[in-house]
């Protein structure tokens, strides 16, 4: 499955491999989205295929659903599962309090719903994702397409009123077209540099009409598994 890996892929792979140790027979597992989560899905698939592990997976995106089915994981919806034993997902940044920025892959809405509906959320990440203060990675905010420019203006006003540094907000594009999430929405990326009070920013963003959800995951993640390019793994 791995062949010759670059240090970054090795870091993602070893974190993913360690995370699947937390998965037991009969569990309902939230399956994250992104390149690190994809390693985890492949590792779980291997356990299903080679060791007869019996799990049901709830994917957080159509991409992950396709991969999970491909590797032999039984896929069910969140409404079928109702509640999950564990969710394993990647992140764009994590800080010392295990708060996260997510949504670089555009799946933050389903990721947050699934993680919140889980007994525990485990984040897998290469060591480069660790930060002292969140915000160097642009904060993704999912907005409905209707009136998105007005929503963007309201979000920017809100940032000014909160005195958050750096107020450059961009609509995420794919070529000439706005990126469309699995739920049919768009993503605004907020270039903030530094988010001093992520809890407050997360709460206030979600008050803006047109905002569906933001990529700050506060008090949701229980454990971070950090992978290193030399194959070491650290669990926090
Ligand atoms: C997708 C996400 C991803 O978990 C995040 O972007 C990290 O991705 P990768 O593992 O590819 O670095 O939040 O919406």
Helix-strand layout with pairing:
Elements lengths: L6 H13 L8 E4 L3 H17 L4 E4 L2 H9 L3 E2 L2 H4 L2 E6 L3 E2 L5 E2 L6 H9 L1 E9 L12 E5 L4 H14 L6 E4 L1 E2 L2 E2 L7 E6 L6 H8 L5 E4 L1 E2 L5 E5 L5 E3 L1
Parallel strand pairs: 1-2, 1-4, 2-3, 4-7, 7-15
Antiparallel strand pairs: 5-6, 6-14, 8-12, 8-13, 9-12, 10-11, 15-16
Helix pairs in contact: 1-2
Bound molecules: ribulose-5-phosphate.
Describe this structure in words.
Belongs to the ribose 5-phosphate isomerase family. Pathway: Carbohydrate degradation; pentose phosphate pathway; D-ribose 5-phosphate from D-ribulose 5-phosphate (non-oxidative stage): step 1/1. The strands form 4 sheets. A 7-stranded mixed sheet has the order 3-2-1-4-7-15-16. It has a 4-stranded antiparallel sheet with strand order 9-12-8-13, with helices on one face. It has helices at 7-19, 35-51, 62-70, 78-81, 108-116, 148-161, 198-205; strands spanning 28-31, 56-59, 74-75, 84-89, 93-94, 100-101, 118-126, 139-143, 168-171, 173-174, 177-178, 186-191, 211-214, 216-217, 223-227, 233-235. The longest helix is centred in the first third of the chain and has 17 residues, at 35-51. The model has no long low-confidence stretch (mean pLDDT 96). The two termini are 26 Å apart. The radius of gyration is 18 Å and the shape is globular. The chain is of the alpha/beta class. 47% of the residues are buried. It binds ribulose-5-phosphate. Ribulose-5-phosphate binds at residues 32-37, 89-92, 102-108, 111.
């Amino acid at each position: 499955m791995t062949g010759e890996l670059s240090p970054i892929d090795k870091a993602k792979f070893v974190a993913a491999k360690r995370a699947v140790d937390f998965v037991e027979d009969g569990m309902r597992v939230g399956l994250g989205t992104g390149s690190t989560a994809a390693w985890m899905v492949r590792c779980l698939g291997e356990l299903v295929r080679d060791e007869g592990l019996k799990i049901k997976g709830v994917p957080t995106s159509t991409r992950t659903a396709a991969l999970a089915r491909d590797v032999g994981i039984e896929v069910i919806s969140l409404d079928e599962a109702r509640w999950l034993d564990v969710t394993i997902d990647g992140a764009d940044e994590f800080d010392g309090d295990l708060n996260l920025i997510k949504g670089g892959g555009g799946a933050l809405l389903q990721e947050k719903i699934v993680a919140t509906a889980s007994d525990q959320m485990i984040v897998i990440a290469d060591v480069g994702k660790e930060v002292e203060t969140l915000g160097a990675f642009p904060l993704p905010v999912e907005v409905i397409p209707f009136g998105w420019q007005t929503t963007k203006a309201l979000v920017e006003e809100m940032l000014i009123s909160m005195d958050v540094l750096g107020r450059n907000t961009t609509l995420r594009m794919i070529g000439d077209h706005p990126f469309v999430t699995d739920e049919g929405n768009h993503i605004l990326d907020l270039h903030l540099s530094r988010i001093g009070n992520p809890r407050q920013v997360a709460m206030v963003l979600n008050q803006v009409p047109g905002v569906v959800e933001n990529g700050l995951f506060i008090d949701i993640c229980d454990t971070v598994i950090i992978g290193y390019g030399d194959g070491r793994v650290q669990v926090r």
